[in-house]
Amino acid sequence: MPLLELDRLAVNYGPIKAVRDLSLTVEAGEIVTVLGANGAGKSTSLQAIVGLLPVHHGSICFDGQNIAGQSTERIVRRGLTLTPEGRHIFAPLTVEENLKIGAATRSSAEEVSRQWDQMMELFPILASRKNQLAGTLSGGEQQQLAIARSLMSKPRLLLLDEPSLGLAPQVVELIFDLIGRLRDMGLTILLVEQNVHQALDIADRGYVVSGGTVVLQGTAAELKISPDVQKAYLGHA
Ligand code: ATP
């Protein structure tokens, strides 16, 4: 049984059908990437999965249970969390305060403290800046904070929406290195990315989305050599 299974998901903004009949699966332990042009419906899908947008039809099964229609809080408690595009950290709060907010769904103080220690180990830059205001961090540091904040809820499945957006090449490397380490630690990841090369290098499988639905799917190796992917996303004629 897949850890996450979307079956014919549809999400509308009023009359706009942003996601239509989108089906995909993510197995435990995998990194699955979702590729597609701007406006393809990638962010909309991720927001619907975590209950931030209503599902028009279709199902979202997480760990065997249909979570479509549940509150975001309940979904996060189940072990699914989203690091949104654009980070959305709380700029006027400190690094530490941002991380504590990420743990809001955890009730055991001991668990939160364990998670905090793990974040300080995984993100040394955040450890050294825990009293700094989040808004004064660099873009790469803010992205690390956004991911660490998501991890404070101790997810089993992490949804990452364009984590490398707007970052310098070296910082992009650092973020992808981190994603690899998270997978090695046992986390399952659904990754939306514009950096198609790096996304296919790190992912096990991928889906190409266009017009709100899946138009191509395969292993990362298959997608890398697909003429359609090469033409549209990898800059080959
Ligand atoms: P991007 O990488 O640019 O974010 P995307 O694949 O994530 O692209 P979505 O942001 O999911 O695409 O957008 C899917 C479609 O829904 C687009 O046609 C977009 O214009 C539309 N859309 C997105 N947000 C809204 C909104 N709040 N109201 C109305 N339409 C929206």
TrEMBL record:
PROSITE patterns: ABC_TRANSPORTER_2. Keywords: Amino-acid transport, ATP-binding, Nucleotide-binding, Transport. InterPro entries: AAA+_ATPase, ABC_transporter-like_ATP-bd, BCAA_Transport_ATP-bd_LivF, P-loop_NTPase. GO terms for molecular function: ATP binding. It comes from the Bacteria. Residues 4-236 form the ABC transporter domain. PANTHER family: HIGH-AFFINITY BRANCHED-CHAIN AMINO ACID TRANSPORT ATP-BINDING PROTEIN LIVF (PTHR43820). Belongs to the ABC transporter superfamily. This is ABC transporter ATP-binding protein. The lineage of its organism: Bacteria, Pseudomonadati, Pseudomonadota, Alphaproteobacteria, Rhodospirillales.
